[in-house]
Specification:
heterodimer, A: alpha/beta, D-Maltodextrin-Binding Protein, domain 2, 3 domains, 5-stranded mixed beta sheet, 14 helices, globular, B: mainly alpha, MetI-like fold
Chain lengths: 390, 269
């Protein structure tokens, strides 16, 4: 036992000593920023990349407590639940507009973010943050179609996801906004429409597609596409670039009807305790060199043309990472929906996935069945006991 | 025939239990460019290398270990004291007390987590703090580890001959000293087993940590956030390391209990 505890103490000591190892040039300012970002969304020093947070500490003397989340909704619940004191957060565009509407974001002082000048004009004053007062774009990308060229010649339209030739080999997003957007582009609607009739029409289109769909998935598309289990799937270009890079038979296309364009932003919550330092951090991320290093690792696209020179030319020229102006002109970004529209979308999505409200009757029948069996067992046991007593 | 069927049944049982973990371990050694989880392309340790290069993972691991050590130590001390108190109670209060302490074990973790978060947020606001963190997670972990320690220590106390403690005092030993010299060595196996259990429980807890963590990140929370992009084999490597560590601790616990049982048998002879 002594040996074990000695080992544990040693191990603990070793791990404790590890983070202090990196060099610090600027004097320690005694401030620790709490940064909350997506998982695997910053260059972290592995694979020869730059350790961006360590570099920030080295240059400014501000320490970073870097933590990660898995979805906009977990970020929201952490913020809304209280008890977490974040200085910099990275919500996606629709979550930015929701947080602005609820007054949860602090207005940025752009005098402290001079590097904002590098952000390309097309990413300024976006529809999710009118006036561009609360957010600085960090990454962006588009949704496109990935397909297996062994089975599918060419894809130019979302219509291919409705092609009965590929029945059972089609994948779809497992989240309502992304799936509905596809149907909405086919119908030529605005993705942020609040008209219930529009949403119903899109839902009908998705319901018609359901029999052809193999599965509604998120990151399983990698495995399914790679081993040929599925032939065609929509996904975020930046995440799935690795698929195209590493397999000869998978290609990417942005459909001609237009597509969803997403932006993840850096914001400061209204509750932040170190707003000044947080702005310094955001400014640091906007440095073209840092942005380039980050995007090189993350695989998404940078909103700064100046940062592209730090990326490999193949990436910059690839339409997967940097689609043409012409393609981009056909894209739309999500804005947070008003509450009743959001509710309708959730409800319609449930109907699409479960195949209509009829399913709830089946569910009720199953539950009743279980109850009946349960009651029967109890009744049987009681009778048995009574018989035994006699 | 019956024996063969029984063997097959046992085999299937273990297959279902361990096949997923086995697959996970095997694919942590997969040498692949695309981070594939299904296509095997040779043996490599590169995911382990990447794992130990990743400062964020190491930081999360450090937090997890600090919390686990603190929670195990504190819950062992508190739990042992509680067990001694409960052991000397009368029958009815003892039963009530046991039910109260056992309740957190059957209470859904999410309920414990949310209620603790609400309590801590309230308390932090009351004392003018800014954020939950290390302290609140540790407090939460101590709470859910307590019943396990108590359950490990109580049987040892019951086995112990009470007159030993009285005899020590009769011979002029002050109560505190008598406790450390006589009672503690007797119940030590239970205490250590309880501590190791608390340690492993604390290491792999996700739900309660998630709600009470504030701006602190533990390893399970970090792993969960990694799943938003494609799950890389780095996670396989990490899970393999965790699995091996917890497995080792559990083996230690089991060997200890087996030994203790063996000793007890010999003494009876």
């Amino acid at each position: 036992m002594k040996k074990l505890s000695l080992f544990l103490t040693l191990a603990l000591f070793f791990v404790l000593a590890a983070p202090a190892a990196y060099a610090q040039d600027a004097p320690d300012r005694g401030v620790t920023l709490n940064v909350y970002n997506w998982g695997e969304y910053i260059a972290n020093g592995t694979d020869g990349s730059m350790d961006v947070n360590a570099e920030f500490t080295r240059r400014t003397g501000i320490r970073v407590n870097y933590t990660t989340f898995d979805s906009n909704e977990s970020l929201y619940s952490k913020l809304a639940g209280g008890g977490a004191d974040y200085d910099v957060i990275f919500p996606s565009e629709y979550m930015v507009s929701r947080l602005i509407n609820e007054g949860r974001l602090a207005e940025l002082d752009f005098a402290n973010i001079p590097n904002f000048q590098y952000v390309d004009p097309q990413f300024r004053d976006p529809n999710y943050d009118p006036g561009n007062r609360y957010s600085v774009p960090y990454t962006w990308g588009v949704v496109g179609i990935f397909y297996n060229t062994d089975y599918i010649e060419e894809v130019t339209s979302w219509q291919s996801l409705w092609d009965s030739q590929y029945a059972g080999k089609i994948l779809m997003f497992d989240n309502p906004r992304d799936s509905f957007a596809i149907a909405q582009f086919m119908l030529g609607q605005d993705v942020n429409t609040t008209d219930p009739a529009d949403w119903r029409a899109a839902a009908d289109l998705l319901k018609g597609q359901k029999p052809l769909v193999q599965a509604y998935v998120m990151d399983q598309i990698f495995d399914k596409m790679e081993n040929g289990e599925a032939w065609i799937a929509p996904y975020y270009a930046g995440d799935a670039a690795i698929l195209v890079d590493n397999s000869d038979n998978i290609a990417f296309a942005v459909p001609e009807e237009g597509t969803n364009f997403f932006v993840d932003c850096a914001c400061i919550p209204i509750t932040a305790s170190h707003k000044r330092e947080a702005e310094e951090y955001i400014n640091f991320l906007c440095d073209p060199e840092i942005s380039g290093a980050n995007m090189d690792y993350v695989g998404y696209s940078t909103p700064e043309t100046a940062a592209r020179e730090y990326l490999s030319p193949e990436v910059v020229e690839s339409p997967l990472h940097y689609p043409s102006e012409e393609t981009l002109s056909r894209t739309q970004a999500f804005v947070n929906l008003p509450e009743d529209a959001a509710k309708l979308v959730d409800q319609l999505w449930a109907e699409v996935k479960m195949g209509g409200p009829g399913e709830s009757a089946v569910l009720a029948a199953i539950i009743l069945g279980f109850l009946a069996v349960y009651v029967a067992i109890i009744a049987y046991k009681r009778r048995k006991r009574r018989r035994e007593l006699r | 025939m019956k024996k063969a069927a029984a063997r097959l049944y046992t085999f299937l049982m273990f297959l279902f239990l361990y096949a997923p973990i086995l697959v996970l371990i095997v694919f942590s050694f997969n040498d692949t460019e695309t981070a594939s989880r299904t296509v095997w392309s040779g043996f490599s340790l590169k995911w382990y290398q990447k794992l130990f290069e990743d400062r964020l993972i190491l930081e999360a691991l450090r937090n997890t270990l600090i919390i686990a050590v603190a929670a195990a130590a504190a819950s062992t001390v508190l739990g042992t004291m509680a067990a001694i108190g409960i052991n000397s109670m009368k029958r009815l209060p003892k039963r009530v007390m046991m039910n109260i302490t056992n309740f957190p074990m059957v209470n859904p973790e999410i309920v414990t987590g949310v209620s603790m978060m609400l309590l801590f947020v309230f308390a932090v606001g009351l004392f003018g703090g800014r954020s939950l963190g290390m302290a609140s997670i540790t407090a939460a972990h101590i709470t859910f580890c307590l019943p396990y320690v108590i359950l490990q220590v109580l049987p040892k106390l019951r086995q112990m001959d009470e007159s030993l403690f009285e005899a020590a005092q009769d011979l002029g030993c002050p109560p505190a000293k008598a406790f450390f010299k006589v009672v503690l060595p007797e119940i030590m196996p239970g205490v250590v087993t309880g501590m190791i259990m608390a340690f492993t429980l604390s290491i792999d807890d996700f739900v309660i940590s998630y709600f009470t963590s504030g701006t602190t990140q533990t390893l399970p929370i970090y792993i969960y956030s990694m799943t938003r992009k494609r799950v890389s084999p780095e996670i396989n490597a990490l899970s393999t390391v965790l699995f091996a560590a917890v497995m080792a601790l559990l083996i230690v616990v089991n060997v200890r209990t087996a030994k203790a049982r063996g000793q007890a048998k010999e003494e009876r002879r």
